[in-house]
TrEMBL record:
Residue intervals of the Nudix hydrolase domain: 1-132
UniProt cross-references to Gene3D superfamilies, sorted A to Z: Nucleoside Triphosphate Pyrophosphohydrolase
Superkingdom of this protein's organism: Bacteria
InterPro entries assigned to the protein according to its UniProt record, in alphabetical order: NUDIX_hydrolase-like_dom_sf (IPR015797), NUDIX_hydrolase_CS (IPR020084), NUDIX_hydrolase_dom (IPR000086)
Family: Belongs to the Nudix hydrolase family.
Keywords assigned: Hydrolase, Magnesium, Metal-binding
Organism placement in taxonomy: Bacteria, Pseudomonadati, Pseudomonadota, Magnetococcia, Magnetococcales
GO molecular function, one term: hydrolase activity, acting on acid anhydrides, in phosphorus-containing anhydrides
Cellular component aspect of the GO annotation: cytoplasm
Protein name: NUDIX hydrolase
């Protein structure tokens, strides 16, 4: 690490009917699918920050459940720690373009998710565990090379 503060990014795994919710973005001519979530505000507790992101970006009230694990990546020379939480919700998410640059919300099954560029990057075997409601084996995947466009 270069001395810059870490970025802590809680993200939520919301599943329904065998699919997981992702946010589709388009950067420099490339698509990317992000787990819903975002950066914390100063002094914000992780669960509250994650619930705030779902509410702001999708108008969806969520209950933040168990921590399923963590993944470390890098962005713009800074380390990013993604904390993956199980979330549940009632209602349908609706994209709020005033709060996000995402193009749309998409439900992807495991086969679809393994075919797309994801943020954070998640290896196929780990993604399969998450789709089964299991946590990341060992709790933390370590530093993964996140492709950027």
């Amino acid at each position: 690490m270069n001395g810059n503060a870490w970025i802590i990014r809680p993200c939520g795994l919301l599943q329904r009917d065998g699919a997981m919710l992702w946010m589709r973005y388009h950067y420099n001519g490339q698509e990317r699918y992000n787990l819903p979530g975002g950066n914390l505000e100063a002094g914000e507790e992780m669960g509250r920050g994650l619930a705030r992101e779902f509410d702001e970006e999708m108008g969806l009230k969520v209950t933040v459940g168990a921590l399923l694990g963590s993944i470390q990546t890098q962005a713009a020379g800074r380390d990013v720690l993604h904390l993956l939480f199980a979330v549940t919700a009632n209602g349908e998410p609706r994209l709020n373009p005033a709060e996000t640059k995402a193009l749309e919300l998409v439900w992807l099954n495991l086969e679809e998710a393994t075919a797309y560029p994801l943020y954070p990057i998640i290896p196929a075997a780990t993604l399969a565990r998450l789709f089964q409601g299991q946590g990341i084996e060992g709790g933390h995947l370590g530093l993964l090379q996140q492709p950027w466009f």
